[in-house]
Amino acid sequence: MTNKSIPHIVWAWATLSACGVNAPPQFVEAPKNPTEAQSEDASPALAKEWVAGSASDQSVSINTGFGLVSHEFSLAQEPLTEESLRQTNRPVQTITAFQGHDGDDATETFAVSEAGLLDLLIVIDDSDSMDGYQQRLANSLPNILSHVGNTNWRIAVATTSDSCLRQTISGVQILTRNYYNSDPTAAQEAFRELIDVGVRSSYERGILMAADALEGKCGASTIPWLRPQAQVSVLLVTDEENCGSASNEGCPGEAHETASYLTDKFDPDPVVHGLLLLQDPPVASDSSCQQSGYYENPPNPSNYVDLITTTGGIYTDICQSDYGVVLEQISQNVGDKINVQFELAYTPVGTMGISIDGNPVSSYFTDSNVLTITEPVADGSSQISITYKHDPVSKTRFFSAGMAVDPDTLSVLVNNTAASSVTYSYNSSTRQVEFNQLPEDRARIDLVFREDTPLETQFTPSLSYLEDSLSVWVNGTPHTDFTIDEVTKRIIFDEPPTDDAEIRISYARDGDKTETYDVVGVEPSDLENFRVVDLESGEPIEVEIDEFGKLKFPSNDIYNGRKVRAEYNLEFDEDQRQFKLPIPHSIVPSSLSISAGGERQTCEQDVKISDKELSFSCSDEDFETIDINYTEIKDYQNSFTLDFDYAGPVLWQVFVDGKEFESFHLFEQTVVILQKDLPPGAKVRIQATPL
User: What is the CB-side half-sphere exposure of residue 643 using CA atoms within 13 A?
Assistant: First the structure.
């Protein structure tokens, strides 16, 4: 049973007896082969061969004149035991890296008329009197953008009582030109919602809140929002003094009482503009102004005026029915101060190529990703083109494997092509591959290797063996660079075999050589003397007859198939016509031939074959030799034990005369084949492969 095992087998005891089993065996079902059936040439973990009894041809000669009986036969040795062992297979590692480069190429174009970056903060008074002003300002976005709409602008809003940037319900905190261009209606509605701060506080700290809002301060946190190269402007909208206008208000002695609190924090100074209450009572008769002013001491926003004039801004009275004209004036003032700047998609490195309408520009500087043109730009200029590199990656000759590398397994690929080993080296201390020269920009570098962990150098055969019979092959090549541990019998290689190498071994075991052979044709007690010679060379072999009357050969003189001739001296009567020859094993009757002087009829008289004897008579004595040839059956067996120490599942396979045989029976580690299926002399090979 190999890959076609029968799940439930019931045998009659008579059948078991026919198999040669002398006691009720314990049946073990042979496991099924989980893959394809292996061929006889496959490499099993353990394999052994037998012959089902030796059906051998025998040749005996009788020379009556010289009193000599000759017996030719072959010496025998059991087939060598074979094993297949396997070296550790360390995983193949692949580390991929890429060479650096000078940067990616980028090309951008801008309309010169849209040059400049503007970050505008509007700080609105949220005290009780400001409701009407807020409504008026909420509709004035077009006026604010009248002279800066072509810039890369952003607008944020805070109040005189809270520096946190306001946010719409939908999450808009900073209004941008991109948002405005994509949806002007939604952008204007977001602006109205940001401006409509409500009237919720009598706390007035205009300069303080403006400075903190520009820095991105909100409570305990700070989130910067100003762009490094943007023109920063502030629009103050209030009908109060810096720290309130009532007699019980003010911030005398506080750092934020004066304009320097803001100007000292920024360089360059933000340009501040203002819609302020300049007279009390208000100069305008518009009803929206009636809630302002009328203080015991008329307000004097001197700190605001000082801040505005110091930074180069403009201011006017808040009490107006229409802010359109004044906001357009402020917009123009802001626009005039915006540098010729362009916000690039990336931060450039190295030399840039810049031209305006095809004319090269040589005077410029960059700060992060903002390009500022420092030479005059001619009126009517249309388009600026900018080419540059960005995001460079450092170049290197060193590439890390990240682990210890077995140098003998290392290969390096550059752009999927194997690099010559003379172009690089491996440093075991740094675990880096070092190239002699820089690989080309952006080259793909693959390090392919096995980790430098020890490979096995010692391998132990499953069975005991005779050391002088051991042969070793590594990946099919004979191998002799090893020693054998005298105690453990381990095979110790001078150098470990390579990863996943097949170590195939063959060896003889104690008892594999047949050292004793029957004396055929004579009784040992009748011998006068004898000798044994090598049939091919004629050289004598030192052989003795043991206590059991058998020829005993020295082990070193035995190898399988060696042909020898045993010559025994006896006394014969010259006219002897009847012969009785001791035959130790069964003769196949149909194979027997007896000839005298080449004639079979002469001595094939009264032939009798008994258990241990062949007798015959000859019709006359006029012959020199009698030649007897026959086939004998010796040591027939049909059960075979492959003894090894392994507790796990095993795939058993049986081959008879080279062909896989499936109708075998497995009793633990013994294979039994019915006699009817196994003729004498058949070659049996059994393979056991752990699963």
Answer: 3
